[in-house]
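Quick illustration, no need to memorize.
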Amino acid sequence: MSHFIRATFHCLFLALLFLLGSCAAPEAETNTALFNEGIYLIPYPQEAIFGGGDFVLSGEVSVVLDGNATDSDRFAATDLIVQLKKEWGINAVITDAPSGQSIILTHEGVSNAVTSLPDKKAMQGYQLKVETDQLIIRAKGESGLFYGTRTLLQIIKKRQEGLFVPGMEITDWPDIPERACHYDTKHHQDKRAYVESFIRDLARYKINMLVWEWEDKFAYPSHPEIGAPGAFTMEEMQEITRYAKKYHVQLVPLVQGLGHVSYILKWPQYNHLREIAASNWEFCPRKDGSYELLNDLWQDAIQATPGSEYIHIGTDESYELGKGIECGCQAEVERTGKHALMTKFISRSAEPLMKEDRTVMAWSAEYVPGEELNPPVGMALIVWGDDDHKHFSEIKEAGYELFAYDPNPGIEPLFLPYFYRLRGEGGNEKEVDNCLQRSYNADSRAATSGKCDGTINTSWDDSGLHNQMWMMSFINSAEWSWSGNNPALEEFIDKFFLNYYGEQSSNIRELYLLLNKAGYYYYKTFERRVWHYGDIGKTHLPVLPRGDNLEYDEYWNREYAAKIEESREQIKQMDRAMEIIRANQDAGVKNSYDLELFTTIAELVSHTCNTYLALSELERAIKEAHNQRFVSHQAAYDALGKAVDIIETNLSERQKVYEELVAVWEKTRLPKGLSTEDKEFFHRQDRARHFAFRRADMTYLICDEELLGLEDYREKLLEYMEWYETTYLL
């Protein structure tokens, strides 16, 4: 019997439940028919019908294009052939006419269900029809044809007789035309090969915009000192932009303006443009030079991204706005308010860029009905938070494009709070909605509103996570911004792991939760939360022995008893994480580089645990030396030697874990804080106190262990041992 899946049916069903008095969701979610058939397609299609014969992929497959196929169509066909071979071992060739088992890519015969849509949606829509001897993908636009091929790659199944596509017909289009991911490289620079593989991954899930926050990772021709050593050149960025366009991903430059500009204002020649002389964080919005310099950089960015329609000028976290006294900003804010001064800055900045046919985005651009001063009409406004959804109609009617902001997942180090998220401080922390739930709530509502031109998912680099840690967040957003009605969140979670890592993967949801919680443990050790959060509290070392009686204060194991026990439990969790990682490596899962990265996280957290346990054992060794003082000088001396061994073992482990982490991360990144023969990296901190920027290099991940002072402790202990040996044993 045929199964019919339609988004509107889902909405009507929920509405019926409401009318019947059942405001709560059903106790058990029903999986979609696609999922039940073992098809883990992301994003979910608008309509699908099962029925008809299966398309068996045996022998060589023909790929047939229209006679007037464009270069983009030919690229879609060529890339499909490459991926069929790479992912499934299927041989396919482009032919002029169907021959044997054929995949037909055409712009002819597209149904009214697609062509009647608004143009931006219609051009991305497609139909996929499976028959026994041919599989036809029809689309009005080039991007729709490409998206049809991305769907095909995800619905191939394997059975004993071989590979096949189940008999079905899919009619599909996006709820939201522009589906953006924010890619933040302020504190690291990925290698070009990684950037291009990242673009391909986004395109696979029908993400069509990459908002790339460069800061100093682009070599601005107008001001070459600003670009960091190794930054992408103008030619390289243009090539990456064209590469992305082949995959129907628009590369949008985000060059921070007003706040977040320490990468510019750290340079002494620009000190005069600061809002506050002592801070490199923010431009003064009343100085002409601020606009002249920023416009130079924005014009460079426009030239670097040929064919892109948008540019993003930042403006978030402008902490110092209106605090300049000599420049008159403080007085102006007292007269007109911060909103007016911010809007003036955005308007003056945006106008020359809009003349270049760019739609301007800014984090802090806000439309306030009835206000005399609002951002220039035609900008793309990013609406923050669920409460603003009621203003969608007002914003659209005022003449703006509307992008819904997918809530920030968090800035926890090492991993994201996909399944476990805490908010609050100290003893008042409590578990709140995880980032997947928040994204689902915001994006699905935006998608079903029918009013959004775009969504944007953010990936802040504040804590220095590897970009791969954000992939589930990006793909989660891709799911709901394409099709806001289906599936249920739990189904997405289940199918994500099967889709992204392959059906041979196992227990990866458990692994994510283990790493998620490990990130919180790691962040609450030593002095890490001093950064950004300002939590103060020194982790002491055990007291050194003193005097000829080997005197010491036994306090460390009492003081840190809770952290010692937590560390013992946490290391068990990391042992379990490593079991899962090794099992999936042995199974040959897809995207296996993630497992290498997960290994470095598990080992770093395990080392943190081991450091607490080592300090516990260190104090016990010194206690043993004290106890032996009036029993056996040799036994006392040997106990001190054991204490030294404990320290040296921990220091050796730290170095090994760090070097292995750097080696794995630098498979896809340039060395952090890279200097070249031509240019030295100029590192200056700023008021944001980002965790990842407290050191220029990767030691930001272990600097808290370094600050413990174990090396100095060891030297003092060795000096004491030398005195003790000379006094009592020689």
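The chain is about 45% helix and 15% strand.
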